[in-house]
Specification:
There is one protein chain. This protein has about 325 residues and is an alpha/beta fold. It is about 35% helix and about 15% strand. It has eleven helices and 13 strands. The chain has helices at about 15-30, 50-60, 80, 85-95, 130-140, 160-165, 205-215, 225-230, 235-255, 275-295, 300-305, and strands at about 5-10, 35, 40-45, 70, 80-85, 100-105, 120-125, 140-145, 170-175, 190, 200, 320, 325. Strand 10 (about 190) and strand 11 form a beta hairpin. Helix 1 (about 15-30) packs across helix 5.
Length: about 325
């Protein structure tokens, strides 16, 4: 069955009302629409309809490996779509929503939707566009991607979107150029499933602005704020002072541990020198015995030397290019756990 593409000028109150109604009907029938957002125009589909999402991806010429983000009408909707939302993600949403910031979160496992190969995540955003939020309040969350064929420029108007997508979309809502001011930029995407979080796509909101809220945020190269790195490293003067203080603390502790008797610190003035001489004689005799053992013991073999074992000890396996070597005839060796 063929469907006629409808186009509405949302800048006119009557056409806006009719356009929103037509968009709701199209979405309910698993078809796609084009809608304005605060960044660029988007192609939208019911986020909970696998058929509708598949139609969206086909219209763009995109595979399931590039799942669309989900636009929501209010921050509270985030808790219905995601779990384990970290505090820093809520802080970012509180500061930049509605706005050009997309947050990747762990998706609610109980939801029966299929956005593509998301690996259990969902990318959420609340757009700063009244027409978009008015539609979202009546439809619920929508899967929305930029309204263009993959590899082509994002559409700044519904007219430009029609030039790329044509009749693959049932309803177009025209609300004038987007963004209203400045360069057309995609939203900045932050992966909040990582700790620390990381910017995975640069966009309309700068990394510097995001770091005011989340100082340990990593940039697209996985690098932290250079200012944090500098602040974390102590100066050479501080390091030297800290080392001197640590040494002083150790010395003080050692002094407190010493017994009160002066005998610990100074040798007995009346000690007999004979004991020192006896010890020296004993050491000389032990050295002589050791020399005798070396001279009269078994000769060190080539295998013993290569394996690092002493004569008569169990051979230890060594590795070479041909396998293992050992000093014993059976070719087996003791293994160290």
């Amino acid at each position: 069955m063929n469907h006629v593409t409808s186009r509405f000028d949302a800048r006119d109150s009557q056409q806006l009302k009719a356009g929103l109604e037509a968009a709701r009907d199209a979405l309910a029938q698993n078809r796609c629409i084009v809608m304005p957002t605060d960044t660029v125009y988007g192609i939208a589909a019911d986020a909970f309809s696998a058929q509708a999402v598949a139609t969206l991806l086909a219209a763009k010429g995109r595979g399931r490996n590039m799942p669309p983000p989900v636009l929501i009408p209010q921050t509270a909707t985030m808790d219905g779509l995601a779990i384990d939302i970290p505090a820093f993600a809520r802080d970012l949403a509180a500061e930049f929503w509605p706005g050009a910031l997309t947050l990747i979160l762990h998706a609610q496992p109980s939801l029966t939707w299929d956005l593509g190969e998301t690996r259990g995540t969902v990318a959420l955003r609340m757009p700063d566009d009244e027409v978009a939020r008015q539609l979202l309040r009546s439809t619920g969350p929508l899967a929305v991607s930029s309204a263009n064929r993959t590899g082509h420029p994002a559409a700044a108007t519904a007219e430009a979107a029609f030039g790329q997508l044509g009749e693959t979309v049932e309803v177009y809502l025209e609300a004038g150029a987007r963004p209203i001011a400045g360069e057309a930029l995609s939203s900045t995407i932050v992966d909040c499933t990582l700790t620390p979080p990381r910017v995975v796509r640069a966009g309309a909101i700068s990394v510097e602005a995001l770091r005011v809220v989340v100082p340990d945020l990593l940039d697209t190269d996985g690098q932290p704020d250079p200012a944090l790195t500098v602040d974390a490293a102590p100066s050479s003067d501080e390091s030297g002072a800290g080392l001197e203080q640590a040494e002083a603390d150790v010395n003080d502790a050692a002094a407190e541990a010493l017994p009160a008797s002066d005998d610990f610190l100074l040798p007995d003035a009346n000690s007999d020198s004979d004991s020192a001489e006896a010890e020296a004689e004993a050491e000389a005799e032990a050295d002589a015995d050791a020399d005798a053992d070396i001279a009269s013991g078994p000769a060190t073999t080539h295998s013993d030397a290569k394996s690092g074992t002493s004569p008569g000890a169990a051979p230890v396996e060594t590795q070479n290019r041909g396998g293992t070597e050992s000093g014993d005839a059976a070719g087996e060796s003791a293994r160290t756990p």
